[in-house]
Here is the input.
Amino acid sequence: MGALAQVATEPTQAAPAKRVTGKRKKWRPVKIPSRFEALLDPGFAAEIAADVPDGEDLRACIQCGTCAGTCPMILYMDLAPRRIIGMIREGARDDVVHSTTPWVCASCYSCTVECPKQIPITGIMHALRRIALREKTYPRGLPVPLMEREFVNVIEKRGRSTESWIAMKMYVRTEPTQLLRHIPLGLRLMRRGRMGFGRESIRDRAQLRALLRAVDEQPRKSAAPTSRAPGVPTPGTGGAS
Amino acid sequence: MLEPEMDPTSQPVSTNGGPKVGVYVCHCGLNIAGKVDVQAVVGFASTLPNVTVARDYKFMCSDPGQDLIEQDLRAGLVNRVVVASCSPLMHEATFRRATAKGGTSPYHFQMASIREHVSWVTADGDDATQKANALVAAAVRRVALHEFLEPRQASVRPDVMVVGAGIAGIHAALTLADAGKHVYLVERETTIGGHMAKFDKTFPTLDCSACILTPKMSQVRSHPNITLWTYSDVVAVEGFTGDFKVRVRHRPRYVREDLCTGCLECIEQCIHKQGKFEDEWNEGLGKRKPIYIPFPQATPAVVVVDPETCIWFKTGKCPRTCIEACERDAFDFEQTETFDEVNVGAIILATGFKTFDAARIPAYGYGYYPNVYTSLEVERLLNAAGPTGGDAILRDGTKPKTVGIIHCVGSRDERNNAYCSKVCCMYSLKLAHLVKERTGADVYNFYIDMRTPGKGYEEFYDRIMKEGVHMVRGRVAEVTDQARSPQEEGRLVIRAEDTLMGSVRRIPVDMVVLAVGMEPQPDAQDVRRLFNISCGGEGFFTERHPKLAPVSTFTDGVFLAGACQGPKDIPDTVAQAGAAAAEALAMVDRGYVMLEANTAWIDEATCSGCKTCVGLCPFSAIAFDEERKKASVNEVVCKGCGICVGACPSGAAQQHLFTDAQIFAEIEGVLEHV
Amino acid sequence: MRYAYYPGCSVSGTGRAYEESLLAVLEALGAGLDELDDWNCCGATAFPSVDEDKAIALSARNLALAEGRAQGSEPVDLVTPCAGCFRALLTAHGSLEERGPVARQIDGALEAVGLRYDRRVRVRHAVDLLVNEIGIEAISEAVTRPLEGLKVACYYGCMLVRPNATFDDQYHPTSMDRLMQAIGAEPIDWSLKTRCCGGACYGADPFSGTMPQATLWLGHALLSEAKRRGADAVVTACPLCQFNLEAFQERMVREFGHPIEMTVGYITQLLGLALGLDERTLGIHRMLRWHLPEREPAAVGAPAAAEGGGHART
Here is the structure.
């Protein structure tokens, strides 16, 4: 009697939402409204803002769309930069970190230069890449994330990069067929002395390794994630005069 | 703020038998009482020397509160008043009035600010009470030394000057002139009408701009109370509230205004067969001759000769066919600049705005691609009196088949002007309608937000949408001539994200119209220095209070009207001009202004005749008697700034309400109780 | 006059001809570059994707090494040919100049390994050096074989002017155009001078196989526009841009149909030709394609240096 009564008074669990496949046969009333709100992460905007200098400006976005309008890679992005900023602001973290957009970004800085609110959009894309690499939410099979991580490994170890090795590793891991397609090009480059396979390296590798380690060990003022982006200098002004 | 007037029927309160100070501590609801122990302050005040009455009340500024003061004064219980409450800016005038109504000088009053200076800024209640006590003690000691001063008046000149004759200046001038005041209307251009004279039609009614403006312009011309000075500007302003002396420069037209009838034969007969020089009135479209009139309905209808381009002035060799053509013999090539000096009681600044220079946004290609225009240029194209007689055509004379109108050019942009220019959405919709009507073109408006507040504005937007104008919600990223498809060949391409559809679009157009924002005039800083007012961060003139005093400035007697105070449309401009005229009228009609009593005076006995003060006075209020070697202050002109008082090496220069004795008393009062 | 030189990783691989031609041209003009000893990779655009603070540290090490050449209180000019390295070094210097929390962290890290950077380096791009240090006039006077009749599209790319434009206009730069005019060539006027070529996106193609690669698309847009405007060749100032535009032209044709055969060279190579240097010295034998149209042999003696560059069209 007691057990039954207990079961009866427990609140019923919400059934997990079924994926909508577009093939509804009859109208299904929604039992639990506003489920979407529960999926949002209200701290995401602050997380990004802390990781990018002047990142707080993303709260001032007026959704004008200039960033998307000027982006050369827009056709290949699943979410326009404008939408990404809007989604960051409202906390759609899951969608944003799984998006292909930060990986398609060419870092051309056109959006940052053209934004009427001077939001550091390119910097925000880089911050999203860092999160995606850390949390492994980047799109699978996409060469770029792996290439960049490989690049960083090579630099940390040797201090200089050798394009040929990195490119090869990237293709082998992701698209071996592309590698095959590029072989003729690779051969032409090799014949002309533009593709070497010697491993470039600096002498004082230990100093570089220690330097990079020391960056991690330096005390940070903010409690934000460790990888703070550098200041994006104001467009149009000299940075080194 | 007006100084209180003494009630002429009251009996002056006796000041014999020394000062009798009444202290009134205000609760200000909980604003003060919530932090300061007002009862304790009252108790403390009653122990101070000279204090005969100490009270507290919830709202001293209210009628019953003020009555307390008046009654104590009339009953002879007090002859000096201290109110411990908010700040002088809030209620010094209120309590001075109450003191005056009670029968004594309004300057027998001193305020102790225990709200702004104590309860609002102190965390601990005990500290707050102690500080309040100290301030009250200071005020009590000081007020005992206040003299019996009477409020003074200065008379206000009856005439008014309006600077700038756009729609704001015109409306203000007519309002004042109709009220019987004499108005000097000064306009820098050769014609009045301002920007409104350049427009074709106005939103939201699509009234023809000239049709509604020109009747007012001719009214101005013929009004007996308006002295219209065009091609003139203000070069110097002296004096102060109620008595400004303004020097106006008149530039020479080389044509006598009283003789010219505006027949325009001279322009026809000029030896230049066609216009060759940049036509500034038409925004650089079209050309003019050295002798010209901006448009046929210009007011006054008098031509002007430009000495920079006229052959006679450049080389001295010209048959001057213009002189021959003139049947009224109105030419006078010997004219020079002339000046006028007038005395006015009030000044209204209606100097207007300039449009944002679109070349500052290179991405839009203004000045780089020929068929990129600003909105003002398109207004001139559409205007029947403009360079194309009303045809909206491209530089090569053809009609555009597709037109793109870009909103927010230079506005809402951290790199240019962060503010919204208020009128561009409406005028962009208007231009969309007009261009579509004249050319049958396909029109696209690119906007960030559609801002259509105001009467009839949203309905106008609805109408334009129904006319089939494309509304693309997305700020344009760039205008380019790169062609990626045959349809784009030879045309301009506008690239923007259509945020409503969610995709980036490349829209080929023949003509691009940039909705440039409003900015202050380029010489706004010079003008504000002339009239001794201030400008805000973006350069517009600063009003006294953004909500409660939008037409006056911090310089009494100088008022603002129109876009020189901030971007606004015609209805708001006219409303503001009327308001400015009303406030100027109030001042001038009254005939006098009350002056602050804290003027300086010079004690002749101690004046050594060093003349240090004379040159320092910014108002030239100090006279020097060469024979007796003594300086003296003209109390009517003195504004009580205190510079001479501070500079005087012998202490001969002193100031009412700020004598050394009074100041030291205040300091001692604080120090004894801190 | 010798300058501190930061080559970057690309010029030892695909960008080899750039370094060869740059060094040869500078030598012919009486200047020289001293390679920074033990320089490390600048991190380019890949490093910030993993750790941006370390990326600044990488550049900070190079800046500190360069500063070692300083004499007295004069700043040291650090010249780099690669636009990506230019941007990385410039941005790092900018962050350090701000002296905020990032700068403090990096300074601390430098100190931990015995390095120190006093912000006394001026990061310069090679084009900046040519135009503003050596000067158009000097170059023009040294021309022996002006490239008369050669129409050239000057392609600046992103990083020379964004996010910072230190030596040229951000929207309509003219440095390379003026250099081309100085050597007798004719720079065409086009609106894609600073449009991204996609070079930083190695294979950023989420649906490879079903959608053309993004870099192909952008590269094709640039090359076809240059061709449309009548250019015989495109000159670049960045090894990544040059490679991206040169290496995939056959694939572009396969994807988009319009045949484009465009010579894409380094600006220093064309400069070198005009200065009378031979093709081998300039690394032209390393290019995947090189065809400049026949011209009449030009008169000996330099053409007058033209005023400005890039025309405003009215």
Q: What stands out?
A: Confidence is low (pLDDT under 50) at residues 203-211, 299-314 of chain C. Strands of chain C lie at 2-5, 32-35, 76-80, 121-125, 151-155, 186-187, 233-236, 263-266. DSSP finds ten helices and eight strands in chain C.
